Amino acid sequence: MASDDTNLDPVTFEVLKNAYVNIVDQMAEQIFRTCYSFVIYSRDFSSALCDAQGDTIMQGSGDIAAHVGTLHYTCKAVIDHFRGDVHPGDVFVINDVYLGGTHFNDTRIVRPIFYRDELLGFAQANGHWADVGGAVPGSFNVNAIDHMGEGLRITPTRVWSKGVCLEDVCRLIASNTRAPADIIGDMQAQAEATRVAEQEICRLVEKYGLPTIKRSFGAVQDYVEVLTRQRIAALPDGVWETEDYIDVDPGSGEGLVPIRVQMTIRGDTVHYDLSRSHPKTISSFLNACFGGSFAAVVAGTKMQFPEIPLNSGFYRVVTMDLGPEGSVVNATWPTPVAGFCSGPFEKIMNSIFELWAEIMPERAMACTFNLDYLLIGGRDGRQSGHKYFMWYDWMVGGWGARNGRDGWAATGPVFGVQLGTQPFEGQERLAPVLTRQNELRVDSGGPGEFRGGMGVEKGVVMTQIDRTVVSYCCDRERSVTWGLWGGLPSIPHGVWVNPGQPNERYLGSLFSNVGLETGDLVTRPSAGGGGLGDPLERDAALVCEDVIDGYVSIERAAKDYGVVVKEIDADLAQYEVDHQATLAQRTYIRANRLAWLAQDAEVIAAKYRAGELDMLDLIRTHGVIVHWGSGELLANTTRQFRAMLMRRTVPYWGKSVAAVGKDASVTLQTA
User: Fold this and answer.
1) pLDDT for the residue numbered 420
2) Which pLDDT does position 664 carry in this prediction?
3) Is the predicted pLDDT of residue 126 greater than 90, yes or no?
4) Which Pfam family name is an example for this entry (predicted)?
5) Contact 668, 242 (CB under 8 A)
6) What are the domain boundaries of the chain?
7) What's the mean pLDDT in 579-608?
8) Contact assessment for residue 108 and residue 94, using Cβ atoms and an 8 Å cutoff
9) Half-sphere CA count of 499, side-chain side, radius 13 A
């Protein structure tokens, strides 16, 4: 424990604990109202209050999940670099991923908090800067061979000294980005947010006294530790393990890249072992340093205990072993890691959801859609001088089906649920793009007794552009968003340019620096969530309702759910279930679906190329993965994808979700 002196009266303790939450949320409000960039305005930021040792006293109530678990690392890095040389009015900046950060865009402003020349702690405001230099607009360079290709690495650096802004240092940083005015504005907004925290802490000191405030810093952390230990101690001991996948290592040929997570509960602690994940870094930027991996562990675990506040007390109970340095989950200098959030982070979180479903089945949830970033940058032909523009877009999508409920549709990613959906009007004003399509994608929810949430299809036309390129950071084009307990997968991610036209191009889910021209249509779907439970166990009336709502097509209702729906009057949304045909269809599927997963994969791929089977036939019926543009079979990927279905889906066929929650015959427990 951080402090043995917890003799605060209960009322004062509770007041101060909630005051610290309020202070961090005030910091967030300050950033939101004064930031310059559209990305940060869309709430891609977080804040923290730390003690004099850099341990977190409190995180904000609406922080980005990928930032939690990392802000204490960067605070400690500032302390280590400037030990003995920290003064009232100082402000520091850091984005170094090798010192506990996430990726270089996530830039932290750190201010020491003094009261009458005594250092009490630190306030930290973290924001995702839209660009930090590097080879491509937005600094998401898939082809980077090291971090120098991703942008500016800022080791702990002083930007205000004793209250005076070091303008030359700020200009140096901003001038190495594509949006220097935004960077200066965001830096000032973040610095002001930390000043709000400093003012509020000093106000509390004046009211309650310095000894009380210092005691409360440790007491709040101890409180979270004790509360977390009590919750863990009430659960059964054991060891559980699972794995998820990144689509591919571009430098090693096709084949899924494993992220393996083992969870051990012993007494009042929970420990995660990721050491058996892919032992090397991959030759794209979908790697994670220790900070990004730990953030995923913390965020995935914290979502099981939403009532517990988050600070360093939580980190004393939840621990992690990443194994040797140099792996995909424990990358070191100079490995590129800008895409960590779409790579290991998202896979670790969903694996943790699956593991906890074994322990608390009432909270079970299938896989959620993968975070994506579309970045288009170039010269804006609408403006004189063709000024530089950057358009930074991310999608909502579907969350996994839950125990007893369908998944949420068109929701922010688990990376950060509070991440705001950017208004199209704002995007169109700031960049030469015109949104032509944004609608729920039919059949995107993974089939199951409980259906995954719906994804979205979005298409934009480039209006007046010059020297413009597009980059895309995503995944699950091949390791498609999976179902749980018998549920089926969703749909792949991937970007198309000018679909259905003679100049159609399929770009996939991971690329950088692809040229665009005026008039190009860029479209992409977000996946839905995976299904939960055997889809043949879903109430036929609910499937019919999904058809009426436009969530499921009549064709997929029959193929995925075995429910035959007849159209009576589409204009009046009148449909009905053919119960006799449904009984026959479900009997037919039950008798054949295991054999369909064993059919020759190349034969299935050939039928796809010939137009006899569609994408969802391959994924959900046959477990076959191809290059979705050319139809070329991905043999290694298909073998791994089928093995995943045999583990996550096939053993649960024929069982209702209610029975699965009580049945221990199929389990991820290893000890």
Assistant:
1) 66
2) 59
3) yes
4) Hydantoinase_B
5) yes
6) 2-228, 597-654
7) 98
8) yes
9) 17
Q: In whole angstroms, give the CA distance from residue 321 to residue 100.
A: 15
Q: Taking the mean position of all CA atoms in its chain, how far away is CA 485?
A: 23
DSSP collapsed to 3 states, 29-87: HHHHHHCCCHHHHCCCEEEEEEECCCCEEEECCCCCHHHCCCHHHHHHHHHHHCCCCCC
Location of structure tokens 């030359």:
168
Cβ(21)–Cβ(309) under 8 Å? yes
Q: Decide if 488 contacts 532 (C-beta within 8 A).
A: no
Strand order of the sheet with strand 373-380?
A: 388-393, 373-380, 465-473, 510-516
Q: What is the DSSP string of 140-189?
A: --TT-SSGGGT-----SEEEEETTEE-HHHHHHHHHTSS-HHHHHHHHHH
Whole-angstrom distance, CA of residue 125 vs CA of residue 146:
27
Question: Based on C-alpha coordinates, what's the Rg of the chain?
Answer: 25
Cα separation of 278 and 271, whole Å? Answer: 19
Helices (H) and strands (E) in the chain, counts: 17, 22
**What amino acid is encoded at 130 in this protein?**
A
Cα-Cα-Cα-Cα torsion 410, 411, 414, 420, nearest 10 degrees, comes to: 120
In single-letter form, the type of residue at position 86 comes to: V
Integer angstrom CA distances of residue 630 from 507, 515, 532, 606: 11, 20, 31, 11
Q: How far is CA 342 from the centre of its chain?
A: 6
* Distance in Å from the first CA to the final CA of the chain: 30
Amino acid at 555: E
Q: Whole-angstrom Cα distance, residue 217 to residue 13?
A: 10
- Which residues sit opposite 172 in a β-bridge? none
**Of all residues in the chain, what percent carry a pLDDT higher than 70?**
97
Q: Please give the structure tokens belonging to residue 323.
A: 């194994």
State the average pLDDT over residues 276-290.
Answer: 96
Residue 242 structure tokens:
């699972």
Grouping H, G, I as helix, E, B as strand and the rest as coil, residue 351 is helix
Residue 354's nearest CA partner among 476, 444, 481, 451 is: 481
Instruction: Identify which of 410, 412, 367, 138 has the alpha carbon closest to the alpha carbon of residue 259.
Output: 367
Measured over all CA atoms, what is the biggest interatomic distance in the chain, rounded to whole angstroms?
A: 81
538: nearest Cα among 554, 565, 557, 551? 557
